[in-house]
Design goal:
The protein is mainly beta and 142 residues long. Helices cover 12% and strands 41% of the residues. It is built from two helices and seven strands; from the N terminus they run ββββαβββα. It is globular and about 40 Å long.
Length: 142
């Protein structure tokens, strides 16, 4: 899909675009919860439109990033069409732009990348260690 093809109240939108700018984040309280919202301007070769970013999406997307929106929805607000991932959609960064605020460090040659640990990692590490010693592979139904 292309931006120029999008219409108000259109769902199941799958599109790739570049983030051209992001407005200041606004925080408001709804039903006792603080919510964050920011509008971004996205662009592809056919045109541009606003993208509404909610909560964690705001931290994920930066100016210059190429993004993919899957299962998005087009709203109409004050006469303008605005795209959002909504409740059932997803926004992912395909490539980071020059202005992207990455906190990643450059990998060291030959180093294993660090991963975030969770409860199951200890069990998986023990299984990996057993496998690396040439012993029989252990599998367990979860």
């Amino acid at each position: 899909m292309k931006i120029s093809e999008l219409r108000a109240r259109q769902g199941s939108v799958n599109i790739e675009a570049v983030v051209k700018e992001i407005e200041e984040t606004k925080i408001f309280n709804k039903f006792g919860r603080d919510l964050k919202v920011a509008n971004a301007m996205i662009e592809d070769e056919s045109g541009s439109m606003k993208l509404t970013l909610w909560n964690d999406e705001i931290e994920k997307v930066h100016k210059g990033d190429k993004i993919r929106i899957t299962n998005g929805f087009v709203n109409e607000f004050k006469g303008d069409n605005q795209l959002t991932a909504g409740k059932f959609g997803k926004i992912e960064v395909i490539t980071h732009g020059k202005e992207s605020h990455q906190s990643q460090e450059a990998p060291v040659a030959g180093a294993t990348p660090a991963v975030e640990a969770d409860e199951d990692d200890d069990d998986e590490d023990a299984l990996d260690e057993k496998d690396s010693k040439g012993e029989e592979e252990y599998t367990e139904d979860y």
